[in-house]
Amino acid sequence: RKLNNMEITAAVLYGGSLAHYDVRVESGRECFARLSSYNGNPAQQPPHTIKLRKEGRHWVSDDVDNSLTDDLGYAVELKAKPILEGRRRDGGHPAG
User: Fold this and answer.
1) CA-to-CA distance for 21 and 34, rounded, in angstroms?
2) The model's pTM
């Protein structure tokens, strides 16, 4: 069964500061992340947009360094997995 697209917010540490990304998850394997906020030094801001995909156990991107991509992918998995499993299990809203 094909997964529906969804959008979540993922937080990662970048340069010791918190970065929040709005992430659109498409079919469970590819994500498009857009930086929504960063509380660190503006001169050291993380990339504004990242396209990442799952390859084996790791997340990879052609755009940015692997540690940021892996951290972001892992944050997405942590948030998206319970939502997907919850929907599958009872069809209700996971926060309901």
Assistant:
1) 5
2) 0.79
- Calculate the average pLDDT of the chain: 83
Report which residue type is found at 14.
Y
What order do you get walking across the sheet with 30-38 strand by strand? Answer: 6-14, 17-26, 30-38, 49-55, 58-60
Instruction: Specify the 3-state DSSP secondary structure of 85.
Output: helix
CB 23 within 8 A of CB 33: yes
At residue 54, the 3 state secondary structure works out as: strand
Task: For residue 27, give Cα distances in angstroms to 52, 69, 82.
Answer: 13, 18, 15
pLDDT tens digits, 26-64: 876 789 999 999 999 999 999 999 999 988 888 999 878
Tokens found for residue 42:
């503006």
Torsion of CA 83, 94, 78, 4, to 10 degrees: 20
Vertex 26: Cα angle to 23 and 28 (nearest 5): 100
